[in-house]
Known about the structure:
alpha+beta, btk motif of tyrosine-protein kinase itk, two-stranded antiparallel sheet, 6 strands
Amino acid sequence: MMENNKEQxxxxxxxxxxxxxKLSYDPSSNTRSSCRFHPSFFVCRRHDDQKRYxxxxxxxxxxAAKFYDCCGAENPNAIGCTTDVHVSYxxx
Length: 92
Ligand SMILES: [Zn+2]
Ligand SMILES: [Zn+2]
């Protein structure tokens, strides 16, 4: 899409765009604590024995829990539980 191309060239002028956290960053100050992210996916399923993260209501189906598989955060916008270096779209 045109929009994406525009965003990407903008990010390249300012620095690189991280494909993990979607933030632009300066490659010269990219350290192992620069990028905050969740190593696992946001899933929708039963919590199993991790009920402490989510209390199901009496009318909720047992699979209604939504959370990050890595840390149990229920908010899709929750700040990452892991840090590492940013990874650009050029790296692989
Ligand atoms: Zn997490
Ligand atoms: Zn990042």
